[in-house]
Design brief:
ARL15; P-loop_NTPase; alpha/beta; GTPase activity; Small_GTPase_ARF/SAR; GTP binding
């Protein structure tokens, strides 16, 4: 009884969720995850393949698999979808019309993918601080 009343054991484990983070190159995926992990914004290098970061929150841990967004890597995105419990799609709201159209196509492809179509999606319109940024309605 004394031990139960006076000594606190280790905190209960936080639930972990596996997410996939996708978007075109330069959309801000790496910067977003670095910020969420409280890492220094200096020396951020665009992801060329994939990386995994554990993002700790008070009540949960998000294991985020960030996938590179170049043309030659996007065709392999679906190989990394298995086991995901949610999707973060990051787009550059200040990108060119061509890049925005490519991002739309990739988003629609992800929304239709059998392993992702039932999962929650967070669509982040990044770079809202840039003069050329589009509003949510325009994106």
């Amino acid at each position: 009884c004394f031990r139960a009343l006076c000594c606190k054991g280790p905190p209960p484990p936080r639930p972990e969720y596996d997410l996939v983070c996708i978007g075109l190159t330069g959309s801000g995926k790496t910067s977003l995850l670095s910020h969420l992990c409280s890492e220094s914004p200096e020396n951020i290098v665009s992801t060329t393949g994939f990386s995994i970061k554990a993002v700790p929150f008070q009540n949960a841990i998000l294991n985020v698999k960030e996938l590179g967004g170049t043309d030659n890597i996007r065709k392999y995105w679906s190989r990394y979808y298995q086991g995901s419990q949610g999707v973060i799609f990051v787009l550059d709201s200040a990108s060119s019309e061509d890049d925005l159209e490519t991002a739309r196509n990739e988003l629609h492809s992800a929304l239709r993918h059998p392993q992702l179509c039932t999962l929650p999606f967070l669509i982040l319109a990044n770079h809202q601080d840039k003069p050329a940024a589009r509003s949510i309605q325009e994106v």
